[in-house]
């Protein structure tokens, strides 16, 4: 039996452990794991890890936001993904009311389909809950978008939902096995604290952190959890930043609430002292990066399985765009690049540092997101029948993170100067080599829109 491609002799990793094996690929799928497999093309992975292609379930490519548009478009963003071992991303189609969410999905697909070089899906961003949305939920699910994002902030953007709408959406999504995710921050409290915060009293843009203390997130997360509990539906917490919120999620799960949470490398590795620097606004995102103590709790909650997903919230604004803040912390274009560095950073600062195991890392960037977002077992695992999405990862390769080694069109990196050991060298998407020996060889338009399944059983 001859396979199209054989990945030879690497250590194949899943949440269940590691196995030195050949991966036989036929067409777009994994056909076999074995030894001495015969291939038309053989790629040597001896001494390397063979990871399932990672999923980044939170990106915002070419997003019109904060008076500009995020700088990495669907081509450059997906190229950066491939170079970082990420073979699937999930972006957002955010409703521009009064137009429908389906309109946003169609528009986003028109932007993305010709450009992407890895596979992608879309969360449906709901900004207006009414009878049209009730009708639209099954339509969105049929279109492959069974997960939703609602915003507990962004009143100024006209994106904010109230608690009644959030409750009703969670209850409605439950009927079809879908899941509502939230951007959980308390808008009213932030507005009040912003009005009371004298920005001039703080260096750099530290007032951003002062006006968004932990309670602005923990209160919103606790509230969303209560609503999900009452509605009996599934809830996902996007970009969770505080340790206290992770403890709230743990307590809720222990009492049986169907709640899931994501954090990301910026919350695990960066802290709010950075806002005091002259370039502190480069780190401006919301929720903001927090305290060192939050990092430790988030790592602990990743390790104990409370936080199931690492994602990046990639929303790239370069230094020229970030300069639009003009000294007013409320005007920072919120977001940072991150998709390309997620896996190497988790490997060095998580696995190598002994905070999580390699198998746990594969859980949080491969298996768990695939399961929670309706892509399992097509994505997130290397087993016969799965898509042949993989990253050959050199665990010894030293790389110092600087913009010059990254594909993002950002001229700074939030992780600038961080020395990591371990980086993806070769990446395949559905059996197609898109990165070879760290050189990008993918093509725009070869990635595919993924019609995802509802992650849960529909309510009876
Ligand atoms: O600051 C952030 N997170 N920007 C991206 C938009 C969002 O809220 O996810
Ligand atoms: Zn958000």
In short:
By secondary structure, this protein is an alpha/beta fold.
Helix proportion: 25-40%
Strand content: 15-25%
User: What composes the largest sheet?
Assistant: 9 strands, mixed
Shape: globular
What ligands does this structure carry?
N-(aminocarbonyl)-beta-alanine, zinc ion
Structural class: alpha/beta
Determine Rg (CA atoms, Å). Answer: 21 Å
Number of strands: 19
Determine the number of helices (DSSP H or I, runs of at least 4 residues).
Answer: 13
Average predicted local confidence, pLDDT: 98
From the N-terminal CA to the C-terminal CA, the straight-line distance is: 46 Å
Low-pLDDT stretches? none
Features:
460 residues, alpha/beta, eight-stranded parallel sheet, 24% strand, binds N-(aminocarbonyl)-beta-alanine, binds zinc ion
Q: What report would you give on this structure?
A:
With 460 residues, this protein is α/β, with parallel strands linked by helices. It contains 13 helices and 19 strands. The chain has helices at residues 74-83, 101-112, 131-142, 163-176, 187-196, 207-210, 214-231, 243-254, 265-269, 292-303, 319-322, 342-352, 358-372; strands at 2-14, 17-26, 29-34, 38-44, 49-52, 54-56, 64-65, 68-69, 86-94, 119-125, 147-151, 179-183, 235-237, 259-263, 309-310, 390-400, 419-429, 432-436, 439-440. Strands 1, 2, 3, 4, 5, 16, 17, 18 and 19 form a 9-stranded mixed beta sheet that branches. An 8-stranded parallel beta sheet has the order 6-9-10-11-12-13-14-15. It has a two-stranded antiparallel ribbon with strand order 7-8. Helix 8 (243-254) links the parallel strand 13 (235-237) and strand 14 (259-263). It is globular, with a radius of gyration of 21 Å. The termini are far apart. Bound molecules: N-(aminocarbonyl)-beta-alanine and zinc ion.
